[in-house]
Amino acid sequence: MTVVGPFGVSVRDQALEADVQAGLAAVEAGLTEATKSEVPFITEAAQHLVRAGGKRFRPLLVMLAAQFGDPHAPGVVPSAVVVELTHLATLYHDDVMDEAAVRRGVASANARWDNSVAVLTGDFLFARASSIVAELGPQAVRIQAEAFERLVTGQIQETAGPSGTQDPIDHYLDVIAGKTGSLIAVSGRFGAMMSGAGEAVVDTLTQYGERIGVAFQLADDVLDIASDSTESGKTPGTDLREGVATLPVLRLRRQAAENGSAEDRRLVALLESDLTDDARHAEALAALRVHPALDEARRDAVRFADQARSTLAPLPDCPAKDALSALCDAVADRTG
């Protein structure tokens, strides 16, 4: 049994592993080339997070989806570069909004330089992604534009919060379907589409991408609470400190409202206080780590991963399908 990708996905087919690894290496080279500029400082800033590494989850999904057609078709690697560049651009912007100090185990761009440099570097990466996707044809441009619209809409919905009648958990799942699921859905879609796979296969892998994307974000939510910075590559409890209510917090609020526990209500009040205070932040993080709400959020992540696996049923049995199924296990296992 061999392994492909940063998630330890089990692959029993050596040819598939070699093919995917070669594809990911080509994507890495493409990212390096796409982030070069005639201005040395721009190159340094644009390559800051590329050099820091990362899971390359989206390019991995492109490569696996391409196995259902011709994985060596000319559009496969460039489309993977497009989705990863777009993802990297959002990280630069997210870190500014979150005032994050660490990303992927290194200083965030806004911490190393300043907010203006981080925002403009993100814009530069969006521009480079747009240039590459334009070479893939008008359909690819439209798909990328629609996904970007969904991504930004999700971010705005998160900022605005749920309406008075909307369930906060339903609202949150809508937010992450846009913020995270949309681009991962494009990864599955581009991989299948660029490889020349049939329309039914493209649709299946698009749906799979969206569902595993939601599972992926829910697993990240759990990690933000449960892990240390060595595991996650960023400062634990960043969302708590910034007052962003991710699924564990929303589950806690629901449980506190339903059971009326004084202890739960006290924890909710603590989470809604000023957590820029280090001692208060540490207390809140420690309490949430042992609360049943965190386990419930873990189960939610596993549920979406299982839904993603079920989506694969119509696809023909092959090593790539097995790898996509194993990817569901790997995402769920990240929750610990």
Describe the structure.
The chain has 336 residues and is mainly alpha-helical. Helices cover 73% and strands 3% of the residues. It has helices at 14-34, 40-46, 48-51, 57-65, 76-98, 109-112, 115-134, 138-160, 168-194, 199-226, 229-232, 238-241, 247-259, 262-271, 278-289, 292-311, 319-333; strands at 2-4, 9-11, 102-103, 106-107. Strand 1 (2-4) and strand 2 (9-11) form a beta hairpin. Helix 4 (57-65) crosses helix 9 (168-194) and helix 8 (138-160) packs antiparallel against helix 9 (168-194).
Number of helices: 17
Task: Give the full name of the CATH homologous superfamily.
Answer: Farnesyl Diphosphate Synthase
CATH topology description:
Farnesyl Diphosphate Synthase
When the domains are counted, the total is 1
CATH class annotation: Mainly Alpha
Mean pLDDT: 87
What structural class results from the helix and strand content?
Answer: mainly alpha
Q: How helical, in percent, are the residues?
A: over 70%
Task: Summarize the helix and strand pattern as letters.
Answer: EEHHHHHEEHHHHHHHHHHHH
State the end-to-end CA separation: 23 Å
Query: Per DSSP, what share of the residues sits in E-state strands of 2 or more residues?
Result: under 5%
Q: Give the strand line-up of the largest sheet.
A: 1-2
The Rg value, from CA coordinates, equals 20 Å
Strands, count: 4
Poorly predicted sequence stretches spanning 5 or more consecutive residues: none
Please describe the biggest sheet, giving its number of strands, its sense, and whether it closes into a barrel. 2 strands, antiparallel
Overall 3D form: globular
What CATH architecture do you see? Orthogonal Bundle
